[in-house]
Amino acid sequence: MDFELPYPFFFLLLLLVLLPFSNTAQTYNNISLGSSLTALDDYSSSWPSPSGEFAFGFRQPGVDGFLLAIWFNKIQERTIVWSANAGSLVPQGSQVELTNDGQFMLKDKTGKQIYFAGSWGITGVAYAAMLDTGNFVLANKSSKYLWESFEEPTNTLLPTQTLKRNSKLYASYTASNYTPGRFRFALKSDGGLLLYTTNYPLDSANCEYWSTHTEGSGFQVIFSQSGSIYLTGTNGSILYMISDNTYSTQDFYHRAMLEYNGVFRHYVYPKKTGLGSVGTRRQGWSSSSFIPPNLCASIAETTGSGACGFNSLCREGTEGPVCECPDGYGFIDENDVLKGCKQKFVSQSCDEAFPETHLFDLQELENGDWPFSDYQHFQPVSEDWCKQSCLSDCSCAVVIFKNGDCWKKGIPLINGRIDPTVGNKALVKIRNNSTNSIPNLARLGLLGSSAFLNLLLLIITCLLFFHIIHHRKAKLSMLYLGGQGNNLKSFTYMEMKGATNGFKEELGRGAFATVFKGVLASEDGKPVAVKRLDTMVRENDLEFKAEVTAIGRTNHKNLVQLLGFCNEGQHRILVYEFMSNGSLASFLFGESRPSWYQRREIALGTARGILYLHEECSIQILHCDIKPQNILLDDSFNARIADFGVAKLLKIEQTRTTTRFRGTRGYVAPEWFKSLPVTVKADVYSFGILLLEIVCCRKNYIAKMEDEDQMILADWAYHCYEQNKLHQLFRNDDDEAKDDIEEMKAYLMIAFWCIQEDASPRPTMRNVTQMLEGTVELSNPPNPSSLYVQCKGL
C-alpha cells in the first residue's frame, strides 16, 4: 500500500495540470493580436469556429455593403445570428482588426470607426476566439472573457446563451435589412419579460403586446443546452416556459429569433436528413414554437400603425401573420409591407356644393376590423342608415356595423385585422367604376332625350373647360417653382431614379421623407442628396412648395443649397448638394470628441445661417426644426442648415404666427405647447438647446444616467454654472479646450439666455451672433424656469 498510493496521486495531479490546456485546444482557435479581416466579397473573409459550425466575418446581404456578422457556417442558408453594424453597412475594403493593444474595432476603407467591441475601459485582451456555441469572445491570458457577443445580442438567441435584466433583442427592419426595426423582446430591470412595439424610427417603447407578468421576480432568460427556453427567478426556479423543446441539440441546430414582423420564434434545423418529423419534411429551418399565438389579435395600439402598418389588414396564416391591403388599396412599398397601404383612388371631396356620394361604394369585408380608428359611434341604427352615413361623410373610410351599432373610422386606419372571432361586418369605402353621374340621371327618367343630350353636351363642355384650366395651372405651377430658385433645374422622375440607382443608398429618414445619395450624370458625376417626400403625407404639396420656395430664394454659405426638384405626378423630390461629412449629430455624439475650435466654428456658422433666414433673405423664414440632425457638415466641416420641409414662411410685415405643432420634442420652445403666438424666437430657443449640446458635447436628454441630476442637460449645465463647477461639464475635453474655459462659459451663458421660458427676454439671432463673436457684452442670465418635461416623452 505504501508504494501504490503515490502513483495514482501523481497520475491525478498530472491529469489536473494538463486538463485546462486540453479543454482550451478543443473549445476554440485563438485569433492573435494584430489579426484582421478585409471585406472583399461574401464569405471570403471569416474566422470559423473549431468545428466549423459557426463563422465570424464579413457578409454581403445585398449590393449596398457588408455586414460584420456571425452565422451558421455548415448549412446552406448560412443564417446570420449576430451583427455588429446592422444600421450601417460598410463598403468593400473595410476592415475589422484586433489591434496589438487589444482593441477590437471595425473601420471603413477611409479609416472611419463604425463599431467598437465593449468600451475603451477594456484592458488585457490577449486573443479573440469564435466558439462552437456561436459566441465570439475577447479573452485575457487566463482565458477569462472580457467581452462576448452573447452579452450584446441583436435579434437572435442561441443554446447556452442568456438574456439578463435590462437586455433586449430587436427585430430587424425587414427580412433582409438588419437595421433595428419596429419590435423588441426585452427583460426589464423589474424582471418583467415582454414583447412591445416601438415609436419607430425612435427606439422608445410604444405598446406591449405580450408579457409573462413576472415584474419583481424575473431574473434571466435561459436558452439551455438541451434546447429549451425559459425565464428563471433569482433562486433559479423556472417562472415561465417560453419553448419546451422536443428536438435534441445533438441532432438539430437551434436558434430563437425576434422576426421583423414581431413574432418571437424558436427554429430547429436537422443536422442530417431524415431526422424526425421536421427533417422528413425538408432540409431547412422549421418552427418549433412561437409567441404570441396570434400576433394580429395581440397588437392593439392607441397610437401607432398596428401589426401591419396604417390602412392594412393582418391575417393569421399557417406560417405566421400575413399583411394584406383592403380592396381599393395597395402597399406603399412591396418590399416592406409593414409600411402599410395607401388608397389607389382619389379621395372623396368635402365640397358640400358638389357632393360625390354617388361616386363611391361600400365593399363588404367579413370579420374585418380596425380597433381604435373610430371617430363616431351611433346606436341603435339600421345597417342602411349606417352605410348612408358613411357614404355622405367625406372623412369616413370604413364603417363597422354589428347588432345596431355603427362605428365610423377615418384615415389612417390602425390595428387592421381579419379575425373569425370578431363577428363584425366591415364596409370599406372605395370609388366605384362610374366617373360621372349621367347614368344615375338617365335612370331617374326625369329628362327627355333632347334635354338629356343638351345636359350631356353642357357637362362635356364644362369638363373640357376645367381640364384646360387645370393644365394651365399645372404649367404655371411648374414655372413658378422653377423660377423661384435662381437656376433651379427641373428633373424627371426617371432621371432621379437613374441618378440614385433605383433609390438604393439611403442617407437618412425623417417623418415625411427619405434622403438618398445620387450622382448627376449631367453634372460630370456630381454627388447629390435626393430627398423623396412620402406620398402618404396629405400635406406633401404644401411641404414641397414651401421647401422649394424657401430654399430656392436663399443664398448663404451656412445653408444647404437646393440644386433642383422633380414635380411629376405623385412624385415630389428635392435635389440638394451633397454634404460629405454627414450630420452634426453623428459628428458631435460619435466616439471621438470634436475639438473646441471645431465646435465653436460650427455654433457660429449655424447662428449666422439662422440669422440669414430670419432677417437677411427676401422672405422671413421660421425654420421650426433646428436640431443636430438638421445641421450638415461640408468638406471643411462648415455648418450648413438643412431641411426646410417644416418651415413656416412669414411675410415681411408678419412678426408672429399661430399654427399647429412643428419641430422635434426636446428642441421646441414652450410657446408651442401653450397655444401662444409663435415668432422667430422659437428658433432662438431651439438654437439655445443646440448650443448647449455643442458646448458640452452631449445630448440634451439622456434617459439612463447614474446621476439623475445629469439627465437633463440644461438643468445640470445651469447648476454647474451657478455653483462655479464648470469643470464637471468639460472633464472629457482635451487640455486645449480647458484652456478656453472662459469662452466656453460665455457660450453657456448665451445658451441660457436663448432658452428662457418666456420668449420676450430671449435675444434675437442678430444679438446671439454678436454675442458669439464677442462684440456684445454679456450679462448674467437668469435661471431658465422650464424644466424640459417635454424631453421625458422621447
From TrEMBL:
<dbReference type="InterPro" id="IPR008271">
    <property type="entry name" value="Ser/Thr_kinase_AS"/>
</dbReference>
<keyword id="KW-0418">Kinase</keyword>
<feature type="transmembrane region" description="Helical">
    <location>
        <begin position="444"/>
        <end position="469"/>
    </location>
</feature>
<keyword id="KW-0325">Glycoprotein</keyword>
<keyword id="KW-1133">Transmembrane helix</keyword>
<keyword id="KW-0245">EGF-like domain</keyword>
<dbReference type="InterPro" id="IPR036426">
    <property type="entry name" value="Bulb-type_lectin_dom_sf"/>
</dbReference>
<dbReference type="InterPro" id="IPR011009">
    <property type="entry name" value="Kinase-like_dom_sf"/>
</dbReference>
<keyword id="KW-0472">Membrane</keyword>
<feature type="domain" description="Bulb-type lectin">
    <location>
        <begin position="28"/>
        <end position="151"/>
    </location>
</feature>
<keyword id="KW-0675">Receptor</keyword>
<dbReference type="GO" id="GO:0004674">
    <property type="term" value="F:protein serine/threonine kinase activity"/>
</dbReference>
<keyword id="KW-0812">Transmembrane</keyword>
<keyword id="KW-0808">Transferase</keyword>
<dbReference type="InterPro" id="IPR001480">
    <property type="entry name" value="Bulb-type_lectin_dom"/>
</dbReference>
<dbReference type="InterPro" id="IPR051343">
    <property type="entry name" value="G-type_lectin_kinases/EP1-like"/>
</dbReference>
<feature type="binding site">
    <location>
        <position position="531"/>
    </location>
    <ligand>
        <name>ATP</name>
    </ligand>
</feature>
<keyword id="KW-0430">Lectin</keyword>
<dbReference type="InterPro" id="IPR000719">
    <property type="entry name" value="Prot_kinase_dom"/>
</dbReference>
<feature type="signal peptide">
    <location>
        <begin position="1"/>
        <end position="24"/>
    </location>
</feature>
<dbReference type="GO" id="GO:0106310">
    <property type="term" value="F:protein serine kinase activity"/>
</dbReference>
<dbReference type="GO" id="GO:0030246">
    <property type="term" value="F:carbohydrate binding"/>
</dbReference>
<keyword id="KW-0732">Signal</keyword>
<dbReference type="Pfam" id="PF00069">
    <property type="entry name" value="Pkinase"/>
</dbReference>
<dbReference type="GO" id="GO:0005524">
    <property type="term" value="F:ATP binding"/>
</dbReference>
<dbReference type="InterPro" id="IPR024171">
    <property type="entry name" value="SRK-like_kinase"/>
</dbReference>
<comment type="similarity">
    <text>Belongs to the protein kinase superfamily. Ser/Thr protein kinase family.</text>
</comment>
<dbReference type="GO" id="GO:0016020">
    <property type="term" value="C:membrane"/>
</dbReference>
<feature type="domain" description="Protein kinase">
    <location>
        <begin position="501"/>
        <end position="776"/>
    </location>
</feature>
<keyword id="KW-0723">Serine/threonine-protein kinase</keyword>
<keyword id="KW-1015">Disulfide bond</keyword>
<protein>
    <recommendedName>
        <fullName>Receptor-like serine/threonine-protein kinase</fullName>
        <ecNumber>2.7.11.1</ecNumber>
    </recommendedName>
</protein>
<keyword id="KW-0067">ATP-binding</keyword>
<keyword id="KW-0547">Nucleotide-binding</keyword>
<dbReference type="Pfam" id="PF01453">
    <property type="entry name" value="B_lectin"/>
</dbReference>
<dbReference type="InterPro" id="IPR017441">
    <property type="entry name" value="Protein_kinase_ATP_BS"/>
</dbReference>
